[in-house]
Amino acid sequence: MQRMFRWIAIIAIVLGVALPVIPQIIWSLAHRWLFPSLLPTEWSMSSWEYVFSPSSRVVEGFMNSLEIAVFVCILSILVGLPAARAIALNDFKGKGIIEWLLMVPIIVPGIVSTLGIHQLFIRLHLTNTFIGVSLVHLIPCIPYMVLVMVSVFSNYGTELEDTARTLGAGPIRVFLNVTLPGILPGLMVATMFTFLISWGQYITTVLIGGGTIVTLPVVLFPFITGINYSNAAAISLVFVAPAILVLIFTSRQLGQDSAVMGGFGRL
Amino acid sequence: MVFNSRRIKLIFAITLLSILTLVAIGAVMAQDELIGEVPGFASWEEVLAAAEGTTVNWWMWGGSDKINTDVDTDIGQRVQELYGITLNRVPNGAELFVDQVLNEAAAGVEQGAIDLMWINGENFRTLADAELLYGPWSEFIPNATYVDWADPALAYDFGYPVNGYESPWGHAQFVMEYNTALVGEEPPTTFEDLTAWIEANPGLFTYPALPDFTGSVFVRHVFYWVAGGPEPFLGEFDQEVFDQYAPAVWEYLNSIEPNLWRGGETYPEATVMDSMLANQEIAFSMGYGPADAANNIAQGIYPETIRTFVFDTGTISNNNFVAIPFNSPNPAGAMVIANYILSEEFQLKLVDPAQWAWLSPISPAVYSEEFQQAVADMELHPATLSPTILAAAALPEPNGDWVTAIEAGWIENVLEN
Amino acid sequence: MNRLKLMEKLRVPMMLFPAIAIIVVLFGGGMISGVGQSVGYFPVIGLNNFTLDYYRDVLTDDGFITSLWLTFRLAFLSTLFSSVLAVAFALVLRHTFRGSRLLTLIYQVPIPIPHLVVATGIVLLVSQSGLLSRSSVALGLTQTPRDFPVMVFDTAGVAIQLTFLWKEVPFIGVVVLAVLKSVGPQYEEIARTLGANSWQRFRYVLFPLMLPGILSTSIIVFAFVFANYEIPLLLGVRHPTTLPVMAFRNYQDPDLALRPQAMAISMILAVVAIFLLVAYKRLAKYAVES
After folding, report:
1. What is the dihedral of CA A151, A157, A160, A164, to 10 degrees?
2. Residue B2 predicted with pLDDT over 50
3. N or C end of chain A, less CB within 10 A?
4. pTM of the prediction?
5. Quick check: B86 contacting A, CB < 8 Å?
6. B39: distance to nearest CA of chain C, Å?
7. Residue C114 and residue A262: Cβ atoms within 8 Å?
8. Which residues in C49-204 belong to E strands, given as ranges?
9. CB-based contact, B95 to chain C, within 8 Å
10. Is residue A53 part of a domain?
11. Which 3 state secondary structure label does DSSP give B211?
12. What's the rounded Cα separation, in Å, for the pair B226 and B237?
């Protein structure tokens, strides 16, 4: 009985995950693939050639997306980590309100704030700049960083830190040698979410980046609504690849550590 | 004085030579001089000097690898070589130009993100109404001499006066695309025949949901058909005239609805429709690009069996324009590019079926004989109708206010009905 | 000493300040402008007077209730189906067997893939000329695209649901799985020795353990689907459509006079979402405690 369920689940997961991905991989190599052919009648590398040509701006977009995402991860740790720790380890007046406030960007539809944010950024001279795009990406990242890290800190005792301090360790050493190892699995997952959120931003990048900051989604999205599936598929695969890499690095933490994902229990 | 034939010949030759010289000087002058005042610059030399070494941010839709590559090589590389201008093509998914310009205006930004934009009539009207465009300039750049500004299709963009705020660079005409494997070699070229075909072949015809650009122009054709021609809709919007024809149009569209794709339960996006045509989900598609079908066949997107036709009563044509926003940091560079894309050199690539395969907004007669010869020698793809057939069938666009009323009326009376 | 005390007092506010400042200034500032437009403050097009007309127009529109219901139904069903499937898979994946590590990794693959890319994949798979339809032709079951069942651009929204399922099942799944794995098999063993059958073990031991994780992730999933416009826009029927799609279409229209309505719809959407989530959280608390 249990074996049967297991096999059903294995087949369902493998097939379920693979099925929508398979056509994209084939499409990226297809030149002519019309109904009712099961496989392309003409194959071609032209979409991949286009992807790596300067005209497609895929390589340029990839590098920009990567730089921004890494920068956003750093900002998000700098801003989110102290906030999460403050919430998890202290009781103070208005804590509930602060927690809700930090979650608002997840709950309120982005469309309400996007245009206003654009106007605000123009006034602050943040449009068309790397910093501006990074900051606008940071907004939806903070809630996830805080959410995950609050739960990590909640299950985290400060006794070891206190011991280290009484033994004379300075704040930096305490953080590097005691705190960081303790929170690392959770921090990796939170950073993965931050990376992915930044990696996928489209409208905000177009508006705040004003065309000077061309990221991968900016290049890809016109193709998704177009009819050249080969190009759309090839660019999609380039877009998805680093995300999958990031996942492989954090997969263990994602699957095993209940404290990490349990953070979502606090919402 | 006796005129012998030799002397006459000589005089004739001299006269001809002087005329030719004058024409040549005129042509050179046309290449080099502004023919009116543009804001901020006294001469074309000044414009060129200001443009050299700069970057121009050109916002345009970025969903076609062919257009992207063509713009980069045939415009970007050439303006770099000729004028030292770097073209930064900014790819766009949705039409965010208006948002961008508007938000910048609201915040008082004097150095905007956009230098040049490829926009449609409705967006042009929004920006022109709000006085957020740089200009007037388009009638005064050197190559504007090629443009026949007396042609209402160039002087007006959807009935809105261009007045020097937009420069044309391509021409578009509505064509129907059909799959000969499902329709046969003789497509229904009148609305009566099309209606009969739809009834005989339920589920194989549809049109994009308005306010989509393509769906909207299809319904305009129905208006022209019901009214017996475009004339009633060319002037200012008139509610009485609209009420006279609109009910018949809605009635017709509702009457074919049960036999449309999905029984008219929904209407597709234009690009989705093209891929449905490619895969025999439907038998017809439509669009503003007469050579799109040929391009799609070449790219393997369409099967070889797709052909195009125009209605016996004609199809609507219009022009592609570029405009410069009021706060462009580099209007000089933008004008140089707008000027280049009107040049003979570029327009030859534009009309070449082996290259851009577009239509030109310029009459070939204004360019050199070589140009005309080259155009005459070009071989059309079997899925593309000849420019002569298209020109003979060309109908004007109605005034923009009609378009808005038609779109709102369709949503209320057909989609939500 | 006093300075130390002050430092101690300011420690928590200082740690919170950067995050709060970014949300309040950047996000809040943007919100205010959006709210302003929805009540008629939009100077660029000459709107300067406070009015609730846009809200009235939106709320009294015939299609509003239909759209609200559609939006709710989509979000509710997506959340429900995702949760059920996530629980089912978690029950299998919590055991260690040969290849279970790899299987868990495959299970997580959808998490980092953007929704729009997934939507494209789903279309290429289940549309009437998609891979499944072609397979059915190859098997001789159908001949033309029209013979294949309609799953894209349909009123039931099959492709929309599939897209959300593909994305959200693993998202809920990893949280539930993490809980089950950290608890280990002891509780279940105890229940077994006490004579509980497999249904009872699930109902009284495993399910209560999983519940907090399910509830919290389902809040995120519900809020996300409720506000998402891209997927129904890309895969849904034209009319009737969901509230976010309505807002987006108005927002995108070159006619700027429609912008305040777009903002009004978005605000209503936000208020409804927050109301539903607060109610849900209350219910969830009650459910967990009982």
Report:
1. 70
2. no
3. N
4. 0.87
5. no
6. 23
7. no
8. none
9. yes
10. no
11. coil
12. 17
CATH number, domain containing residue C223? 1.10.3720.10
Is omega for the bond preceding B136 within 30 degrees of 0, making it cis? yes
* Interface residue B181 vs chain A (CB under 8 A): no
Query: How would you class B356 by CB atoms within 10 Å of its CB: exposed for 0-12, middle for 13-18, buried for 19 or more?
Result: buried
Q: How confident is the model at residue B27 (pLDDT cuts 50, 70, 90)?
A: very low
CA distance B231 to B217: 16
Nearest CA in chain B to C236: B266
Is C243 part of any domain?
A: yes
- Lowest mean per-residue pLDDT among A101-110, B200-209, B389-398: A101-110
Find the range with the poorest average confidence among A75-79, B15-19, B40-44, B300-304.
B15-19
Q: Is residue A257 part of a domain?
A: yes
Does residue A45 lie within any of the structural domains? no
Chain B residue with minimum CA distance to C257: B126
Q: Are the beta carbons of C109 and A244 separated by less than 8 Å?
A: yes
Beta-strand relationship, B306-309 and B160-161: unpaired
Contact assignment for A116 to C22 by CB distance below 8 Å: no
Query: Would you state the structure tokens that stand for residue B89, as one six-digit string?
Result: 């093509």
Domain span at residue A78 reads 61-266
* Residue A176 maps to a domain: yes
Q: What is the pLDDT of residue B28?
A: 45
User: Domain of C144?
Assistant: 39-289
- Beta carbons of C146 and B203 less than 8 angstroms apart: yes
* B131 in contact with C, Cβ within 8 Å: no
Which residues of chain B lie closer than 8 angstroms to C44, CB-CB?
A: 102, 105-106, 130
Q: Considering the domain boundaries, does residue C15 fall inside one?
A: no
Looking up residue A137, the CATH number of its domain turns out to be 1.10.3720.10
What is the count of structural domains for chain C? 1
Closest Cα in chain A, distance from residue B71 (Å): 9
- The total of structural domains in chain A comes to 1
pLDDT in tens, C153-191: 998 899 999 999 999 999 899 888 888 877 777 777 888
Q: Is residue C29 part of a domain?
A: no
Residue written as token pair 């649901």:
C161
The count of other CB atoms within 10 Å of the CB of residue B192 is 11
Residue C131 backbone dihedrals phi, psi, to 5 degrees: -60, -40
Task: Please give the biggest Cα pair distance in chain B.
Answer: 87
Q: How does pLDDT run across B130-164, given as a tens digit for each residue?
A: 899 998 999 999 999 999 999 988 999 988 899 99
Pairwise CB contact (< 8 Å): A229 & B275: yes
Residue C63 with chain B: CB contacts under 8 Å: 416
Task: Categorize the per-residue pLDDT at B29 as very low, low, confident or very high, splitting at 50, 70 and 90.
Answer: very low
pLDDT higher than 60, residue A263:
no
Residue C126 placed within a domain: yes
pLDDT digits (tens, 9 = 90+) for A240-258: 998 888 888 887 776 655 5
Gap from A222 CA to chain C (nearest CA, Å): 11
Phi/psi class of residue B324: alpha, beta or left (left: φ > 0; alpha: ψ in -120 to 50)? beta
Decide if B370 contacts B129 (C-beta within 8 A).
Answer: no
DSSP of chain A, one letter per residue?
-HHHHHHHHHHHHHHHHHTTHHHHHHHTTEEE--TT-SS-SEE-SHHHHHHTSGGG-HHHHHHHHHHHHHHHHHHHHHHHHHHHHHHHH---TTHHHHHHHHHHHHHS-HHHHHHHHHHHHHHTT-TTSHHHHHHHHHHHHHHHHHHHHHHHHHT--SHHHHHHHHTT--HHHHIIIIIHHHHHHHHHHHHHHHHHHHHH--HHHHHHHTTTS--HHHHHHHHHTSS-HHHHHHHHHHHHHHHHHHHHHHHHHHHH-HHHHGGGGG-
Q: What is the pLDDT of residues C188-243, one digit of tens each?
A: 788 888 888 888 888 888 888 888 788 878 888 888 898 888 899 889 998 889 99
Q: What is the ipTM of this complex?
A: 0.85
